[in-house]
C-alpha cells in the first residue's frame, strides 16, 4: 500500500515542507511508500524533504504539452468551471493513474478548502470514482467556505482529519459528517534544528515578525492593517530598545513574503533595529529554531505561528481564515492574541501586541503546561489510520 500526495506542491512554502515531514513521521512508513507530486524537486531535496517522501515530477515534455494544451483549450472552452476541470485533469491524470488498489490519497494543504473549488475537489472525486480511499489531511474550513461541490466531496472522503476543533464542529453540526477526527497539525511534532542566529539576538530582545500580501491585501502597506504594522515598527524603534526580525516563510511567486519584508527592511535598515532573516537558505525546522529564540512572535503564516506555539513563544496570529482562531482556541489562547486581517479594525494589531506583551510570563507558562500533551495528542491519528487501512 502506498500513500499519494497530489497537492504537496513544494517547500517554497515552508508550511508544505512541514506538513510533508510531519506527516511522514506520523505515518511511520518508508519514503518509498509515500509519493508526493512535486513541482520543484531541486528545492525539496535541498530542504531534505526527499529523505521523508519520494518526490515525483512530470517529465518536462509533458509539462510543456499540458501548458500548451490548456492554452489552446482556453480559446475554445468559454465556461470557466469546465475549463478549470480540463486543466486539473491534464495536470493530475498521470499522477493519479499511478495509484493501485489499496493505495490511499492524502489531500494536504491545510486550508485549501477555504478557497475556491480547486484541486482538492477534483483529485478526491477522481479517486472516489476509481473506488480508492482518500483522507483530507490536517484541514481547516469554515461554514462560509462551503460550496455544493465542496460539500459533495467532503462526504466522499474516507476520513477527514481536522487540525482544530472549530472546523471539526462545523463539519459535524452543519453537514452531519461522521468521518471527522480532530488532532493537532502534523507540523507541531517537528523539532527545531539549531543554526547560527542573526546578530540581532546579541543586541537585545527580538520580536519576530512574519507578514504576507495575504493579510496586507497586496504588496504594499496602504491597507489599514498595513499602516498599523508600519506604525508598530516605528513604535518599537523609537519607544523601546527591542529589535524586529522579519521572517519570510512563503517564497512562492505571487505570494512571496520576502517582497513585503524587504520593503520594511529597506525603509528602516538605517536604524539598525530592523533585520531580515535569510529564510531562503533555511529549512522549516531551522526557521523554527530562530523563531524559538524570539521574545514575541507575530505571524501571518499559520505554520510560522505553529513554530512559535510549539516552542512556547508568546504570539500574535494575524489570521485570514478559521484556522487561526481554531488553533488558538485549542491551545487555550485568548482571542485577544488573534487579529482578524480580513475584517480588520484599526488599532487591533497594536491592541493584540500590547495584550501579549503585558502577559508574556503568563502566556509562556500556559504554553509550557499545554504544549507537551498537545503535541503528544498528534500521534493519536496513527490508531485511526490503522483502523482505516483495515476497512
Describe the structure.
The chain contains 16 helices and 13 strands. It is of the alpha/beta class and 391 residues long. It folds into two domains: 3-57 and 99-188 and 376-390, Glycogen Phosphorylase B (Rossmann fold, 3-Layer(aba) Sandwich); 199-358, 3-Layer(aba) Sandwich (Rossmann fold). The protein has a seven-stranded parallel beta sheet, with helices on both faces. Helix 12 (302-310) links the parallel strand 11 and strand 12. Helix 3 runs antiparallel to helix 4. The model has no long low-confidence stretch (mean pLDDT 94).
Which descriptors would you attach to this protein?
391 residues; alpha/beta; Rossmann fold; 7-stranded parallel sheet; 15% strand
**CATH-defined fold name of the largest domain:** Rossmann fold
Uncertain segments are none
CATH C-level class of the largest domain: Alpha Beta
| Total domain count | 2
The helix content, as a percent range, equals 40-55%
Main sheet characteristics: 7 strands, parallel
Approximately what portion of the residues adopt beta-strand conformation? 5-15%
Structural class: alpha/beta
Number of helical stretches of at least 4 residues? 16
Query: In oligomeric terms, what are we looking at?
Result: single chain
> How many individual β-strands?
13
Spatial order of strands in the largest sheet: 3-2-1-4-5-6-7
The CATH architecture of the largest domain is 3-Layer(aba) Sandwich
- 3D shape: globular
Amino acid at each position: 500500500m502506498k500513500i499519494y500526495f497530489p497537492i504537496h506542491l513544494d517547500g517554497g512554502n515552508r508550511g508544505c515542507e512541514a506538513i510533508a515531514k510531519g506527516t511522514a513521521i506520523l505515518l511511520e512508513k518508508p519514503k518509498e511508500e509515500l509519493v508526493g507530486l512535486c513541482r520543484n524537486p531541486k528545492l525539496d531535496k535541498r530542504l531534505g524533504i526527499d529523505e521523508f517522501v519520494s518526490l515525483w515530477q512530470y517529465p518536462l515534455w509533458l509539462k510543456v504539452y499540458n501548458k500548451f494544451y490548456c492554452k489552446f483549450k482556453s480559446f475554445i472552452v468559454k465556461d470557466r468551471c469546465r475549463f478549470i476541470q480540463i486543466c486539473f485533469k491534464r495536470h493530475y491524470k498521470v499522477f493519479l493513474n499511478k495509484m493501485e488498489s489499496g493505495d490511499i490519497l492524502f489531500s494536504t494543504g491545510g486550508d485549501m478548502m477555504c478557497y475556491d473549488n480547486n484541486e482538492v475537489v477534483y483529485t478526491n472525486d477522481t479517486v472516489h470514482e476509481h473506488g480508492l480511499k482518500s483522507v483530507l489531511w490536517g484541514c481547516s474550513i469554515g461554514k462560509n467556505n462551503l460550496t455544493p461541490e465542496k460539500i459533495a466531496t467532503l462526504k466522499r472522503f474516507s476520513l477527514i482529519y481536522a487540525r482544530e476543533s472549530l472546523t471539526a464542529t462545523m463539519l459535524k453540526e452543519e453537514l452531519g459528517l461522521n468521518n471527522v477526527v480532530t488532532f493537532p497539525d502534523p507540523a507541531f511534532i517537528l523539532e527545531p534544528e539549531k543554526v547560527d542566529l542573526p546578530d540581532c539576538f546579541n543586541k537585545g530582545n527580538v520580536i519576530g515578525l512574519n507578514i504576507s500580501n495575504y493579510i496586507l491585501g497586496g504588496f504594499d502597506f496602504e491597507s489599514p492593517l498595513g499602516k498599523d504594522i508600519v506604525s508598530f515598527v516605528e513604535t518599537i524603534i523609537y519607544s523601546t530598545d527591542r529589535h524586529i526580525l522579519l521572517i519570510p516563510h512563503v517564497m512562492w511567486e505571487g505570494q512571496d513574503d520576502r517582497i513585503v519584508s524587504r520593503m520594511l527592511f529597506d525603509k528602516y535598515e538605517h536604524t539598525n533595529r530592523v533585520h531580515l532573516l535569510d529564510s531562503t537558505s533555511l529549512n522549516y525546522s531551522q526557521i523554527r529554531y530562530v523563531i524559538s529564540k524570539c521574545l514575541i512572535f507575530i505571524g501571518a503564516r499559520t505554520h510560522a505561528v505553529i513554530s512559535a506555539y510549539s516552542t512556547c513563544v508568546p504570539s500574535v496570529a494575524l489570521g485570514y481564515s478559521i484556522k487561526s482562531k481554531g488553533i488558538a482556541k485549542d491551545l487555550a489562547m485568548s482571542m485577544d492574541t488573534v487579529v482578524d486581517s480580513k475584517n480588520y479594525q484599526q488599532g487591533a494589531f497594536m491592541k493584540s501586541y500590547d495584550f501579549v506583551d503585558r502577559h508574556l510570563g503568563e502566556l509562556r507558562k500556559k504554553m509550557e503546561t499545554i504544549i507537551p500533551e498537545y503535541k503528544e495528542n498528534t500521534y493519536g491519528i496513527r490508531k485511526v489510520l490503522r483502523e482505516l487501512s483495515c476497512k
